[in-house]
From TrEMBL:
Family: Belongs to the FAD-binding oxidoreductase/transferase type 4 family.
FAD-binding PCMH-type domain span: 34-215
GO molecular function, one term: FAD binding
Domain of life (superkingdom): Bacteria
Flavoprotein keyword on record: yes
Record GO biological process: respiratory electron transport chain
Protein name: FAD/FMN-containing dehydrogenase
Keywords recorded for this protein, A-Z: FAD, Flavoprotein
Entry cofactors: FAD
The organism of origin for this protein: Pseudacidovorax intermedius
UniProt keyword annotation of Flavoprotein present: yes
Length: 479
């Protein structure tokens, strides 16, 4: 192994990390929940070099863990502890290759950060609408590998719907050029859609053709107090019927979430005179101007107050206010993390069943685990909730840590069983990784698992691409 590693080191001078201290930042995930080992961390700067590294791994039967910004929340980018793994960091594949404002497409390499993609689109007078709180660090390759969602899926779709073509390196180290900027292409199995959402288990994404949209002329946000999730759902319907495609985000959060943000972020303030058990943050994008957007949102809020779907609302009048309202939503995740241990669920439900789920699940959690705090927020317009828990306020000390951690498995099972019973999914946008891998397998039919296993075996016959992620190890094909 050492001789083979020396050979790779020579070929990739300066782009292969083997010292423990150099490798360390790549071996632990963003939440510091998982840590692994790797023979090396490779940092290639071209698709051809990615292919060469993967070929070397295939030849020496070393597993490959693709890694972008390492902001994933399911442990998908962290190697296992076998020591037979190489981390393939894509962050040096950071070029914008082409922009076509007539085709409305942007071709970028996998390691370009989401924020850089948004900036490149904006410089060309276009919008790339994928947006999430980790956008300064996460990469477009990671977004596609996870089929990321974020806050504007309601209007523009998730990462899959924003990608027209891909370039990828197969498990054998061949380069597949599927960088087609076509909106229609019915020429057989859709390999692009197979790689998207496969979490690095089928191959390595090296570049993508992304779909651009017109830049809106104005955006206005409203922070709305609502009595309960059922009222929030009625408000969603009202907003959709009045605003149509102008409604670009519709987020729900409980008062517990906002209280956590106020506790942990100095500048955070509730923009309303009185507290409410639930709030909605909605955003309108307008192609006329700010006054037109404000008039539309004011009309909606008047109707909502009249119908008692809302009790109060604050509207953004400046960019600073718009950003401050959004910060209340985007800072929830970090504020919950600052509070101590968390138990997280990223669930999707039919929108019509969300209010019932929140009511029955909340009662069940309180009955079985009294005092533990529910921290519920999410992209209501997409039917996606982050249904999280934090320890009870009087059980935050280190002495309670193990007891809270022991609740993770039974609470996961309880929540996921109810999600499936409500016709939902246990992973909406964060992927399975190792965190939800076994829970997902528990709920999939034998047929579905067998089909997934067959795809894996066909594309990665030696089980070297990100093993142990997405599918349980015994569902993978190995030599
Ligand atoms: P990584 O974490 O590096 O990798 C994620 C997975 O993709 C791993 O399985 C990895 O092996 C694989 N992978 C990475 N790059 C490639 C590649 N080039 N080819 C093949 N496989 C690859 N996610 C959402 O969807 N919506 C949100 O609203 C959201 N909010 C977040 C907020 C915060 C504060 C944080 C920390 C995370 C959030 N996430 C969210 C999760 C995360 O940011 C996304 O999943 C993101 O898409 C991961 O990108 P990354 O480059 O960091 O990928």
């Amino acid at each position: 192994m050492q001789a083979a590693l020396d050979e790779l080191r020579q070929a990739f001078a300066g782009r292969l990390l083997v010292d423990e201290a150099d490798k360390a930042p790549f071996l632990t995930d963003w939440r510091r929940k998982w840590t692994g080992q790797a023979v090396a961390v490779a940092q290639p700067d071209s698709a051809a070099d990615v292919a060469a590294v993967v070929r070397w791994c295939a030849q020496h039967r070393i597993a490959v863990v693709p890694q972008g910004g390492n902001t994933g929340l399911s442990g998908g980018a962290t190697p296992d502890t076998s020591g037979r793994t190489l981390v393939l960091s894509l962050t040096r594949l950071n070029k914008v290759r082409a922009i076509d404002t007539i085709n409305n497409t942007l071709t970028v390499e996998a390691g370009v950060t989401l924020q850089q993609v948004q900036d490149a689109a904006r410089e060309a007078g276009r919008l790339f609408p994928l947006s999430l709180a980790a956008e300064g660090t996460c990469t477009i390759g990671g977004n596609l590998a996870n089929n990321a969602g974020g806050v504007q899926v309601l209007r523009y779709g998730n990462a899959r719907e924003l990608c027209l073509g891909l370039e990828a390196v197969t498990a054998q180290g061949e380069l597949w050029d599927g960088l087609r900027g076509l909106r229609k292409d019915n020429t057989g199995y859709d390999l692009r859609d197979l790689f998207i959402g496969s979490e690095g288990t089928l191959g390595v994404i090296t570049a993508a053709v992304l779909k651009l949209h017109p830049l809106p002329a104005a955006q206005v946000a409203a922070f709305v107090a609502v009595p309960d999730p059922a009222a929030a759902l009625q408000l969603l319907q009202l907003a959709q019927s009045r605003l149509g495609a102008g409604l670009t985000a519709f987020e729900l959060m409980s008062d517990t979430c906002i209280a956590l943000v106020e506790k942990h972020v100095d500048s955070a303030r509730l923009p309303l005179a009185e507290r409410s058990p639930w709030y909605v943050l909605l955003e309108v994008s307008d192609n006329v101007d700010e006054a037109h957007a404000s008039a539309a949102i004011e009309g909606l809020l008047e109707a909502a107050l009249e119908q008692e779907l809302a009790t109060d609302a604050a509207l953004s009048a400046t960019l600073a206010q718009f950003q401050a309202l959004w910060a209340l939503r985007e800072d929830i995740s970090e504020s919950q993390g600052a509070e101590g241990r968390t138990i997280k669920h990223d669930i999707a439900l039919p929108i019509s069943r969300i209010a019932d789920f929140i009511a029955t699940m909340g009662a069940e959690i309180e009955r079985r685990w009294p005092g533990e705090r529910l921290v519920v927020f999410g992209h209501l317009g997409d039917g996606n909730l982050h249904y999280n828990l934090s320890p009870a306020a009087d059980r935050l000390g280190a002495e309670h840590r193990a007891a809270f951690e022991a609740l993770e498995k039974p609470i996961n099972q309880c929540v996921h069983d109810a999600v499936v019973a409500h016709g939902g999914s246990i992973s909406a946008e964060h992927g399975l990784g190792v965190l939800r891998r076994d829970e997902s397998a528990r709920h999939k039919s034998a047929v579905e698992l067998r089909l997934m296993q067959a795809v894996k075996a066909a594309l990665d016959p030696h089980g070297l691409m990100n093993p142990g992620k997405l599918l349980p190890p015994n569902q993978e094909h190995s030599e």
